[in-house]
């Protein structure tokens, strides 16, 4: 009967020693590894360290780091081909008679590596040739245990589902980000004020968070590497988007659209009192975004209110209670490498682990903190 692969069959990374590697010209074995992980080595050595054996499995942190950064030097499909070739060569999987005892030690580690790779970087397997490499190497160890073939089938099913979802998301986001064009002047009734559609700041903050999560979940970590690797550092500091960074580009466009939406909604009313009401409404929305940890929408709203068409409305701002806005703006202050924002982000991560309700408030604490800072500054000024 075929055995089912359970978690007990899998390997706990970090408990096994690095694979035996012979030093190449100009390299000493003692210089390649620091605390069990490669500190500096050639690409061949780094790939060797990724390949599992019967007695070795790489650290999980190393797998992620290398798979993410290696695409700067080698295409993922070529890397997979080399990994599979090394597995076949080292485990002698090309021989007519296999060492079943050895393969049964090696098989779970190989499947675990492939599972982590397909789970974290599914876009690396969009080409049919990469799927062929997976089927080939697993097909060689399957005669030793039919559970390997079953596990591979489950892995491929999960991979195809992920790619299907990512493909649908990319198409949907591409269509949503296309600007609306009119052959004739749009009717006057086509524009509806946002306050007439949704007057509850918490509800709008929740909807903005749904939009953020929908767009964010399609972005793979490799897109951040691809966005900055091909740019000319002398030409511009902006990221270089390409066909491999479509989701990241769509996310940036969404941020800009939300900025312009906020500025447009504020500038639309003709009277100062109405504009002040819209500003206060977006301040409340930004506060709710902060409370639920939606910092991207918070930053977009603050950026929209700081755009010149809005910031120049001095008489309108005179009618606004700006205390709450200044608190939020203080949290997004870029000075000190966004020190305040980083602190708020750590606090949000902690609250997500300890919160008992979805609407636990932290804004009062921030208000007291800012007031305490102002009081302290005034006392220092008085002493001077």
**Low-confidence segments:** 1-17, 21-31, 185-190, 361-368
**Average pLDDT:** 78
Strand content: under 5%
Q: What radius of gyration results from the CA coordinates?
A: 27 Å
Give a quick account of the main beta sheet: strands, pairing sense, barrel closure. 2 strands, antiparallel
With strands numbered from the N-terminus, the spatial order across the biggest sheet is 1-2
Shape: elongated
Distance between the termini: 85 Å
Order of helices and strands: HEEHHHHHHHHHHHHHHHHH
Helix content: 55-70%
Key phrases:
384 residues; mainly alpha; 2 strands; 63% helix; elongated; disordered N terminus
Describe this structure in words.
This protein is mainly α and 384 residues long. It contains 18 helices and 2 strands. α5 packs parallel to α7. The N terminus is likely disordered.
Annotate the secondary structure layout:
Elements: H1 29-32, E1 33-34, E2 37-38, H2 43-50, H3 60-69, H4 76-90, H5 100-120, H6 128-141, H7 146-176, H8 194-197, H9 201-216, H10 221-229, H11 246-267, H12 272-291, H13 295-305, H14 308-311, H15 314-317, H16 323-331, H17 335-354, H18 363-383
Antiparallel strand pairs: 1-2
């Amino acid at each position: 009967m075929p055995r089912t692969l359970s978690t007990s069959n899998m390997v706990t990374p970090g408990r096994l020693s690095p694979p035996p590697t012979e030093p190449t010209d100009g390299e000493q074995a003692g210089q390649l590894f620091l605390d069990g992980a490669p500190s500096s080595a050639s690409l061949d050595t780094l790939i060797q360290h990724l390949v599992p054996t019967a007695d070795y499995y790489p650290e999980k942190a190393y797998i992620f780091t290398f798979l993410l950064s290696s695409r700067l030097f080698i295409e993922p499909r070529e890397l997979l081909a080399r990994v599979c070739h090394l597995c076949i060569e080292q485990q002698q999987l090309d021989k007519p008679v296999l060492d079943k005892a050895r393969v049964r030690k090696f098989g779970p580690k190989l499947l675990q590596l492939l599972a982590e790779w397909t789970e974290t970087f599914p876009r690396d397997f969009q080409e049919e040739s990469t799927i062929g490499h997976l089927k080939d190497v697993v097909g060689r160890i399957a005669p030793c245990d039919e559970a390997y073939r079953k596990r591979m089938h489950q892995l491929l099913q999960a991979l195809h589902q992920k790619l299907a979802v990512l493909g649908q998301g990319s198409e949907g986001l591409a269509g949503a980000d296309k600007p609306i064009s009119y052959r004739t002047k749009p009717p006057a009734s086509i524009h509806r004020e946002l306050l007439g559609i949704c007057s509850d700041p918490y509800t709008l903050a929740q909807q903005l968070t749904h939009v953020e999560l929908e767009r964010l979940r399609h972005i793979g970590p490799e897109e951040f590497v691809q966005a900055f690797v091909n740019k000319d550092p002398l030409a511009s500091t902006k990221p270089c988007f390409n066909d491999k960074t479509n989701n990241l580009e769509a996310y940036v466009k969404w941020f800009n659209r939300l900025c312009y939406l906020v500025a447009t909604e504020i500038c639309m009313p003709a009277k100062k009192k109405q504009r002040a009401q819209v500003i206060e409404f977006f301040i409340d929305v930004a506060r709710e975004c902060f409370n639920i940890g939606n910092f991207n929408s918070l930053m977009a709203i603050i950026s929209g209110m700081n755009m010149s068409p809005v910031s120049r409305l001095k008489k309108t701002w005179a009618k606004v209670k700006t205390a709450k806005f200044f608190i939020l703006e203080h949290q997004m202050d870029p000075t000190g490498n966004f020190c305040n924002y980083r602190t708020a982000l750590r606090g949000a991560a902690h609250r997500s682990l300890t919160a008992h309700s979805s609407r636990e408030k932290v804004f009062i604490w921030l208000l007291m903190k800012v007031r305490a800072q102002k009081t302290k500054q005034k006392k220092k000024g008085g002493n001077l």
